[in-house]
Write a structure and sequence with these properties.
By secondary structure, the chain is an all-beta fold. It is 0% helix and 48% strand. The strands form two sheets. A six-stranded mixed beta sheet has the order 2-10-9-4-5-6, with no helix packed on it. The chain has a four-stranded antiparallel beta sheet with strand order 1-3-8-7, with no helix packed on it. A hairpin with a 5-residue loop joins strand 5 and strand 6. The protein starts with a strand and ends with a strand. The relative contact order is 0.33.
Amino acid sequence: QVQLVESGGGLVQAGESLRLSCAASGSVFRSNAMGWYRQAPGKQRELVASIATRGSTTYQDSVKGRFTISRDNAKNSVYLQMDGLKPEDTAVYYCNVDPPFLPWGQGTQVTVSS
């Protein structure tokens, strides 16, 4: 069974940067678009950024120009570089295929203080 393991979150101040990593076991990674999702307290989980198997990317409007998604198929890994973080980016961040159908990992907490 595929497992997703997210890492790289933390507590930062507004304007600072973080780089999230996600490692996926199994062969499903290479044949699917991958996405980063986030869930803030009291809100539904939402797709933040997505990257297709050949590298084309899409972003939620609120993160365009600040976040960059990338993938390394050789390492079965997907990354999210987050620059210019804002307090409203505070959430638990998850990776999954896009659209999501794998069991969710534990996520990684990102907290941005003002």
